[in-house]
TrEMBL record:
Protein species of origin: Lunasporangiospora selenospora
Function per UniProt: GTPase involved in activation of the TORC1 signaling pathway, which promotes growth and represses autophagy in nutrient-rich conditions.
Keyword Signal set for record: no
Lineage, opening ranks: Eukaryota, Fungi, Fungi incertae sedis, Mucoromycota, Mortierellomycotina
Protein name: GTP-binding protein
Catalytic activity, as annotated: GTP + H2O = GDP + phosphate + H(+)
Length: 408
């Protein structure tokens, strides 16, 4: 990846004891593995630089083994210097005292090197009491309450111990937050969304743009998604309910499935290969477009209707650049093709997806009546896209300017 491209991406580090669930999180979030498949994962044994082609730059580190702060050759400056957020995973089903000790040690070492680092603690595997959880969700609410109380206690315990410990060490100013997560539901994606949002300096601008878009187009909810991970990096000011988040994230899956069957819609396919074949995994959704049929450099198939369990999908992909030799990211980035899709659901809701850049897609929820003015929506979305380009372009320009100044 080009340097400026790496720079613009939020950098994350995932740490925790062995078997706490790091690889599972990585596979489920970034590689579309189903949660049950993670039961058979080998434990992480080496630093895992996962060069995923996502908006998010992501690494996984393991305890014990890789992290020995007392080893003089251990280069904490290099490790923590560039990281935006350090996510520490704690297995809530296990005795978490050792994990807490490691967490405190890590926070101290990392904070010394980089006081800007944001610490995020995932109290993980909270689906623990899975049977109760299910009963609680579908019927009698008592077990659910019980589980809730248990979780709250666990969270309070972990949070309290941690803040006390850090205060004792004189580190009360460390930014540290706690989340309850599980790979068996959307909680892991939602936690990541919150984590990532803190790392995006342009967030207020993006939110503002989304607000303007919604207000002027009658859109009920708009999310800006990182396509590969299905983490949303920004949304408009209206409240997020998990149902609308889930339906939008499912839409990405639907589009990915359709595009892999029909090979036309342009969207990243993360079902191909896991870490073992990282090279092959470098595809992004722009590159994927180059799988379009040969000899159709300028085709526009807007008539593909596919019936999907009670909803009607119209997948429309424009591809104006089908140069087979052209595999470089820079090239695909500069071409003017994009993914676009609309799903009309039986309940009168319309899902509207539009590619924004090679990592990001805009997904909007709106009423079918509102969608009758599709021209207006298309136009406003186009304006939104252009504004987004400017936001990221400005950041790049700003960085170059600062570098030039520093060199003088
Ligand atoms: P790592 O060593 O930290 O990379 O841990 P792994 O990812 O190998 O996970 C260890 C075990 O925890 C695996 O058997 C996973 O299936 C399981 N696991 C991971 N996440 C969850 C979760 O959210 N809930 C439950 N119940 N199990 C999980």
């Amino acid at each position: 990846l080009a340097d400026e491209d790496r720079e613009a991406r939020p950098r994350l580090m995932l740490m925790g004891l062995r078997r706490s669930g790091k690889s599972s999180i990585q596979r489920v979030v970034f590689h579309k593995m189903s949660p049950t498949e993670t039961l058979f994962l080998e434990s992480t044994s080496k630093i895992n630089k996962d060069n995923i082609h996502s908006f998010i730059d992501f690494q996984v580190w393991d305890f014990p083994g890789q992290m020995d702060f007392f080893d003089p050759t251990f280069d904490t400056a290099a490790i923590f210097g560039e990281v935006g957020a350090l996510v520490f995973v704690i297995d809530s089903q296990d005795d978490y005292m050792e994990a807490l000790a490691r967490l405190h040690q890590t926070v101290r070492a990392a904070y010394q090197q980089n006081p800007n680092i944001i610490f995020e603690v995932f109290i993980h595997k909270v689906d623990g009491l899975s049977e109760d959880y299910k009963i609680g969700t579908y019927g009698d609410s008592r077990p659910w309450l019980l589980l809730n109380r248990l979780l709250k206690n666990t969270q309070r315990d972990i949070q309290q111990t941690t803040t006390d410990e850090l205060a004792d060490a004189g580190l009360e100013n460390v930014q540290i937050s706690f989340y309850l997560t599980s790979i068996y539901d959307h909680s892991i994606f939602e936690a990541f969304s919150k984590v990532i949002q803190k790392l995006i300096p342009q967030l207020p601008t993006l939110e503002n743009l989304l607000n303007i878009l919604c207000a002027n187009s009658g859109i009920e909810k708009a999310f800006l998604f990182d396509v590969i991970s299905k983490i949303y990096i920004a949304t408009d000011a209206s409240p997020v309910d998990s149902q609308s988040y889930e339906i939008c994230s499912d839409m990405i899956d639907v589009i990915i499935d359709i595009s892999s069957i029909y090979g036309r819609a342009a969207i990243g396919d993360k079902s191909q290969g896991y870490l073992e074949d990282q090279q092959d995994h470098q595809e992004d959704w722009s590159q994927h477009q180059q799988d379009a049929p040969e000899g159709h450099p300028d085709y526009d198939d807007s008539n593909g209707h596919h019936h999907l369990q009670g909803s009607q999908a119209l997948v429309n992909s424009n591809n104006n650049n089908n140069n087979d030799d052209d595999q470089s990211v820079a090239q695909t980035n500069s071409s003017n093709h994009e993914a676009f899709s609309v799903i009309k659901m039986g309940n009168g809701t319309v899902l509207y997806l539009r590619e924004v850049n090679k990592y990001l897609a805009l997904i909007c929820l709106l009423r079918a009546e509102t969608f009758e003015k599709q021209g207006l929506i298309d136009y406003n979305v186009q304006c939104f896209k252009e504004a987004m380009d400017q936001v990221f372009e400005l950041r790049r320009a700003e960085k170059t300017r600062r570098e030039l100044e520093a060199n003088q």
